[in-house]
């Protein structure tokens, strides 16, 4: 019915790109923030400006990661080193945290202007999992998880939540480290070997594999190359979770 191993007792779902159509919102915010910063930097230094590639750079450096980790990872790829800064750095401050907060302000602006949509087939899958008696948790690097869940009205579909806010409070390393998913399993009272990870980001499926989970489901919303990259770490790759309902 659910296309999962018999020992599965819990499902750990990423949010952006798996359940909600917010991955595109995040990608657009990253691009606007990075392009703006790199353009400012090029004008100051005389260096050539090379824009943020919303497909290659997003998937390789920032997708699925905590905000500060994604900011740092991409800048390092361009040979840019900035001070870490503080979590409450203002968006105009030239630090890792400041730029991350600039990106987050853009995400909130885009969500307010355009709203949030869900992947209906994936929401149906979550409901089916709960009806089958499995516990469910949302595990997302986003610090805006609570707002998004409330906006789309699916808060009650999850028994636990581990997001960017909780990760910061508990000092959990972000994906591709498995700690956030392991924390989600602990919150549900289920061992990793009986929990299933659902992820659309490469860093996310890497985390699922590293954590020793029963099964890792990759969700490909991009293209064939992304599907192949997910398949390196996932047990199965689908375009939507509804496909699993058809697995006998």
TrEMBL record:
GO terms for molecular function: beta-phosphoglucomutase activity; hydrolase activity; metal ion binding. Keywords: Carbohydrate metabolism, Hydrolase, Isomerase, Magnesium, Metal-binding, Phosphoprotein. InterPro entries: B-phosphoglucomutase_hydrolase, Beta-PGM-like, HAD-like_sf, HAD-SF_hydro_IA, HAD_sf, PGP-like_dom2. It catalyses: beta-D-glucose 1-phosphate = beta-D-glucose 6-phosphate. Its EC number is 5.4.2.6. The keyword Nucleus does not apply. Residues 77-98 are annotated as: Disordered. It comes from the Bacteria. Its cofactor is Mg(2+). It is an enzyme of class 5 (isomerase). Pfam families: Hydrolase. Belongs to the HAD-like hydrolase superfamily. CbbY/CbbZ/Gph/YieH family. NCBIfam families: HAD-SF-IA-v3 (TIGR01509), PGMB-YQAB-SF (TIGR02009). This is Beta-phosphoglucomutase. It comes from Actinomadura spongiicola. The lineage of its organism: Bacteria, Bacillati, Actinomycetota, Actinomycetes, Streptosporangiales.
């Amino acid at each position: 019915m659910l296309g999962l191993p018999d020992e599965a007792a819990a499902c750990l779902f990423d949010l952006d790109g798996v359940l909600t159509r917010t991955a595109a919102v995040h990608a657009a915010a990253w691009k606007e923030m990075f392009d703006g910063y790199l353009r400012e930097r090029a004008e100051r230094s005389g260096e050539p400006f090379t824009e943020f590639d919303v497909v290659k750079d997003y998937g390789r450096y920032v997708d699925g990661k905590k905000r500060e980790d994604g900011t740092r990872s991409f800048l390092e790829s361009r040979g840019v080193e900035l001070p870490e800064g503080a979590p409450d750095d203002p968006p105009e401050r030239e630090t890792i945290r400041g730029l991350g907060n600039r990106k987050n302000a853009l995400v909130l602006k885009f969500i307010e202007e355009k709203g949030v949509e869900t992947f209906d087939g994936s929401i149906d899958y979550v409901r089916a999992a709960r009806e089958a008696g499995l516990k469910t948790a949302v595990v997302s690097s986003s610090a805006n998880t609570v707002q998004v869940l409330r906006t789309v009205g699916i808060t009650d579909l999850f028994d636990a939540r581990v997001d960017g806010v909780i990760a910061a409070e508990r000092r959990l390393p972000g994906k591709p480290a498995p700690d956030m998913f392991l924390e989600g399993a602990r919150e549900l009272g289920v061992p990793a070997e009986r929990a299933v990870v659902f992820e659309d980001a490469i860093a996310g499926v890497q985390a699922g594999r590293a954590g020793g989970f029963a099964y890792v489901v990759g969700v490909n919303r991009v293209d064939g190359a992304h599907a192949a990259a997910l398949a390196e770490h996932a047990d199965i790759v689908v375009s939507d979770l509804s496909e699993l309902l058809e697995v006998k």
